[in-house]
Fold this sequence. Notes:
The complex is a heterotrimer. Chain A is an all-alpha fold. Chain A is built from 15 helices and no strands. Chain A is 73% helix and 0% strand. Chain B has two domains: 33-75, no CATH class; 102-251 and 281-303, MetI-like (MetI-like fold, Orthogonal Bundle). The longest helix of chain B is centred in the middle third of the chain and has 31 residues, at 96-126. The two termini of chain B are 51 Å apart. Residues 1-9 of chain B have low confidence and may be disordered. Chain C is an alpha+beta fold. Chain C folds into two domains: 4-233, Rossmann fold, CATH 3.40.50.300; 240-355, CATH 2.40.50.140. The radius of gyration of chain C is 25 Å and the shape is elongated. The mean pLDDT of chain C is 90. Chains in contact: A-B, A-C, B-C. Chains A and B meet through helix 2, helix 3, helix 5, helix 6 and helix 7 of A and helix 1, helix 4, helix 5, helix 6 and helix 7 of B.
Amino acid sequence: MSGKSRPNQLFRNLNAKIASIPMILTASVIFFGGTLWTIFYSFTNSKLLPRLKFVGFSQYERLWSTNRWLISIENLLIFGFLSLIFSLAIGFLLAVLMDQKIRFENTFRTIFLYPFALSFIVTGLVWQWILNPDFGIQKVVRSFGWDNFNFDPLYDAEIVIYGILIAALWQGTGLVMCIMLAGLRGIDQEIWNAAKIDGIPSWKTYLLIIIPMMRPVFVTTLVLITSGIVKVYDLVVAQTSGGPGIASEVPAKFVYDTMFLKQNLGQGFAGSTMMLLSVLIVLIPWAYLEFGGKKRG
Amino acid sequence: MVNKLSLPKKIDLLPGPFGPKPRKKISQRNIIIYGTLLLVSVYYLLPLYVMVVTSLKGMPEIRLGNVFSPPLEIVLSPWVKAWSEACTGLNCDGLSRGFWNSVVITVPSVIISILVASVNGYALSNWRFKGADIFFTILIFGSFIPYQVMLYPIVIILREIGLYGKLGGLILVHTIFGMPILTLLFRNYFTSLPEELFKAARVDGAGFWRIYLRIMLPMSLPIFVVAIILQVTGIWNDFLFGVVYTKPENYPMTVQLNNIVNSVQGVKEYNVNMAATILTGLVPLVIYFVSGKLFVRGIAAGAVKG
Amino acid sequence: MPSVSVRGLSLNFGDVQVLRNLNIDIEEGEFLVLLGPSGCGKSTLLNCIAGLLDASDGQIFIKERNVTWEEPKDRGIGMVFQSYALYPQMSVEGNLSFGLKNARMPSDEITRRVIRAAEILQIEPLLKRKPSQLSGGQRQRVAIGRALVRDVDVFLFDEPLSNLDAQLRSELRVEIKRLHARLKNTMIYVTHDQIEALTLADRIAVMKGGVIQQLAAPQLIYNKPSNLYVAGFIGSPAMNFLPGQIVVSGEEASFTTKDGASISLQGYEASTSLRQGGEAILGVRPEHIQIHTEPIPGLTIPVTVEIDEPMGADSLLWLKFEQQSLSVRIDADLNCQEGTIYHLEFNIPKSSIFRKDTEERI
């Protein structure tokens, strides 16, 4: 009896299993295996090609004493933090406005969302042009009479990261707005009616009732934005090429340059492992909150 | 049928307010709402305006004016130059080369990635088997991992199977990284279809592939359209994979664009640059404007994970 | 002095007339039920009274005050919703006190009201809990409590029991009746369930298509429905309808069916005259029919047994007459074979006759 059931188990749903081979391979070999491989080799001495010479944590020590890496981390933190706050705030505010039963809702949504359809390269290049000191915003404001106006995020190391921020917000807030609007629309109309009968003014209802009810939406959006922030690469390449100098360097670009242009795989692997860690720091608590309860039950 | 007994004679209204409350059309509330929306719209539309306007000016006019001023004289030569003459570091063929490269990359990638993911999503929704959920979870988690972590292992794998630097390699990469969200999209869609259809087909004796081809596919046109929109936009706009996994003569449009604008020394031809930028963004933009609500549906699917 | 008055109230959504020229006077302390199927306008009417919807025409008075343009919070009403609409992240206490805190009431007054409401509704032990930790019945009590603390004149209920299972529904139905007896406030209650309407109401307004079909006490609606629609809607199992003619000869009036069976209409209380005769529909409830084994001329009609539906204490017997099926309530112990022929006698004083063209009661 038991001898017969063994081979049957494997052949049950054979077609489904065959159809799922790409997923199985991708998940196990690429995602799981590839990640492990990179982490593993970050402890080696690889240069142009992967080498199996273990050097402990020295790649990491070197990484954290490299100025370029430190600047990229600092940029990522500033950019990430501001990006998160502004995306959520602007996205939510726009969603609230759009939820007011306005006319031309489709038109406005089309306007707010079209940047999302563009490549980061396109976004970076057009903002590079707008922020151009000789022809762009700085020139325009100066031509109105404010001769001392300085706004040169492309060449001013102090504020270059804010130029990138403006471009990133332009591209991404439309998406946040769409998600928030969907969340707002998911709230039962009767809650609004109850608040109206209780005499609660609109702004208070949003603040004390609606936003707490939308906590899951905010959390999901936060996770999405965070994973996007860590990946930021194309935008920097297009808008500033990491400059001026290395002032707008970001980890993703650091890793790419180190791996493929500087032929220092070991450093690249260490950098990407650090990037992975930063994502996991956000991802694991979220996954635990979302799914931990269900797995127990 | 309206009962005559219940429609009473018109009763005189008592003094005082009656009917709907009078509300001003141009209230303070409306001004704040529409005003803010319009102002924000300016922020969003400005770059588009700047792109178009710059691409239609001659260089002398650009040097004299600023990015916001409309063209005094409309010139179409920047567009021609961007398409067929602009120089990257390697050659001076313009963007047309990159455009066709992108087409050659995008079309097969979209088709293959969608086919693979749709069959996969179907398998997950109707034919659950042991371990399926574990792999799916890893797949979804994997989509959050920064690509940089997996870049080099993929290079090695592609080299081993002889696809590194070739078109097939890039198609494979796009299929791999498109899998998480597409499989999720299809799985959720197929799960939402009535189970009775599937059960009836099985009772009739149909097997895995037959049900997929005869029943699932014909009913999934909307979700396929959403998937196509997502993939065409994502793959066309890709830069990282294009630059890592192809040889320079196969660079997609985005990589070419970056080279044209950023790696040219000497005189920068801003109008050509802007024309080139618009050309690169044109394909996904057109899809976006044409598809409207379906586009929103696609990204909403990506946002509502698990 | 009516507690709530609606005059000439109409509401259009675009081209659709949802409410047509409604006029109702609700007395102080009355429990009025708005009854009807979905889409009849009952919830819309309630929302207009509450101030959540603007009427297209007409006026609303609450306690003699014209509130047609007033905000909901200024109308002196409290409302209970179908989905409870409790604020999910606040405790029960928070839910009850939120509106009062917003109105800057002194905190000892708030506490007094909350405790009083909790006491009346027996939810004191639940005060610290969140809505997600409550059962459906408990949530609905909290929803009622939220209206109670407002210390208002009029309570509005929008299908409050529809989301509960059958057993809870009957429990809470009694609670609401007790509440009304204790508080004696005016209550306006919307439902599609006729049992709720019949048990709770002082008066019922049966609505269809934005129009009130009949506004009367439950017994009157049950015994003397004013039109065919009300007659068919109220009462379960439903009333039987027989098409035919009123035949008048001298002082006697009788009802002749399509195939010629004749029933005397003696004893029928007509509101207008039967003398007009004409095509009509005779309506009789299953419990107002008696079964005879032998025919009584001029009084009974012959029928054939089709099928028997046992319902515990009684059975519902379905019999074929002419082209239709009639239902009769019989004792569960009686065993009726399919195909047997019986003769039905109708309780004419308890029946209703409707004109075929206007569908109104004669």
